[in-house]
Amino acid sequence: MKPIEPLAFFDDSAHARWRSDFPILEERVHGKPLVYLDNGATTQKPASVIEAERAYYLHSNANVHRGVHELSQRATDAYEGARARIARFVNAARTEEIVFVRGTTEAINLVAQSAVRPRLQPGDEILVSAMEHHSNIVPWQLVCAQTGAQLKVVPIDDSGTLDMAVCERMLGERTRLAAFAHVSNALGTINPVKQLIELAHRRGVPVLIDGAQAIAHLRVDMQALDCDFYAFSGHKVYGPTGIGVLYAKARHLEAMPPWQGGGDMIRSVTFEQTEYNAIPWKFEAGTPNIAGAIGLAAALDYVDAIGIDAIGAHEAALLAHATQAIGALPHIRLIGTAREKAGVLSFVHEEVHAHDVGTILDHEGVAVRAGHHCAMPVMQRFGVPATVRASFGLYNTRADVDALLRGLSKVQEVFGR
Ligand code: PLP
């Protein structure tokens, strides 16, 4: 764990300004000011994102790619402009490498069914890690059941760090894809994705990175990473729900068959034969989430205006402070103590169930996640049914961590432990 660096915190005036950009942070819950520490589940939205969606519905709402009329043109320009904005944010080589989907889950299912399934033979292997979210496990289990391929799991150690030596050995002749989280939602571990991609590529294995928990915290650069597929959700990066992104190298998208059929993904249709649209539209059947894409672009504008590196540094300082303070409490055990972590602090109270801890914290106005975090194999690995997870966003403060600490002393009061 890195030492606490107080200077890495946003200074108070800047921070107060950023907090005030998020109207929901003014809410009170159970009569207490809201302390929102469930950013791993979803982030709150700045007024600029809410306003971008509102402005779209007020001034530009129409279907995209279809009308000759002015509103349809505006909607199409805004939707395609959002795609270009996202391509810039992740430094994709080409805008067509950005496919709009519902979120990380849909992006991974798309890759599983369209890119991977047609290439799988019985006995082939898909490699994942032991720290994956269900969204990066179940789509591969489905595709394995459909083809006779096998899911292989790279183990993690007691700190929640991937075993790279074992990983290297497991990347074998039968491996057809490796799929790893960039950041673990349950443990906070930052995986060495560049190194993983290099390892896999040396063996000719393409790589999918689940970026759901990375996109709001770390700089992600598709060209520098050289990954084949990268998935993320808008709602975890201060954008709307129901919109997400699959980045894929253009040559992969060109080679992949469509996943869903319908309007917009075709060039021409007859009953005898259908010609598909160019990428990325080949993968966007039906009316897309236009407002969501526009909202996501506004969210990325917002993040860029602050700077992802400044956000990451602020959250790292918060995490260091919280880790030290909470780790020192009696009966508390931290789950996930890797050297490289993003702003996620998972812990268990040795004598009180995570759900009870979460309920007491809620009554103190502190929103955390308590449960298995859609990562049941991680819970099994650490021998716990559930953890309490505090996860940080750019608007969180030391005062929020202190509120969490006060809430945890309430747990001690209530349970006498
Ligand atoms: N992958 C990780 C690491 C996640 O944390 C999540 C959501 O928590 C997902 C995938 C799924 O994201 P979504 O539900 O937005 O599709």
What would you note in describing this structure?
The protein is of the alpha/beta class. The protein has two domains: 6-42 and 307-415, Aspartate Aminotransferase, domain 1, CATH 3.90.1150; 50-304, Aspartate Aminotransferase, domain 2 (3-Layer(aba) Sandwich). The protein has helices at residues 12-20, 47-59, 70-89, 104-116, 138-147, 164-170, 193-202, 222-225, 250-255, 290-306, 308-327, 354-363, 376-382, 398-415, and strands at 28-29, 32-33, 35-36, 98-101, 125-129, 150-154, 175-181, 207-210, 229-233, 244-248, 266-269, 274-276, 332-335, 344-349, 366-367, 369-371, 387-391. Helix 3 packs across helix 10 (290-306). It is globular. Residues 1-7 have low confidence and may be disordered. Pyridoxal-5'-phosphate binds next to helix 4.
Summarize, please.
This protein is of the alpha/beta class. The chain has 2 domains: 6-42 and 307-415, Aspartate Aminotransferase, domain 1 (Alpha-Beta Complex); 50-304, Type I PLP-dependent aspartate aminotransferase-like (Major domain) (Aspartate Aminotransferase, domain 2).
Q: Which regions are unreliable across 5 or more consecutive residues at pLDDT < 50? A: 1-7
- Shape, principal axes of CA atoms: globular
Number of DSSP-assigned strands:
17
Question: Strand-residue fraction?
Answer: 15-25%
- Span between N and C termini? 27 Å
The percentage helix is 25-40%
Strand order of the largest sheet: 4-10-9-8-7-5-6
Tell me the radius of gyration: 22 Å
Mean pLDDT equals: 95
What structural class do the secondary elements suggest?
alpha/beta
- Per the CATH scheme, the topology name of the largest domain is Aspartate Aminotransferase, domain 2
The CATH architecture of the largest domain comes to 3-Layer(aba) Sandwich
Q: Largest sheet, if any?
A: 7 strands, mixed
Number of helices: 14
Bound small molecules, deduplicated = pyridoxal-5'-phosphate
How many structurally independent domains?
2
Find the CATH superfamily of the largest domain.
Type I PLP-dependent aspartate aminotransferase-like (Major domain)
Briefly, what CATH class of the largest domain? Alpha Beta
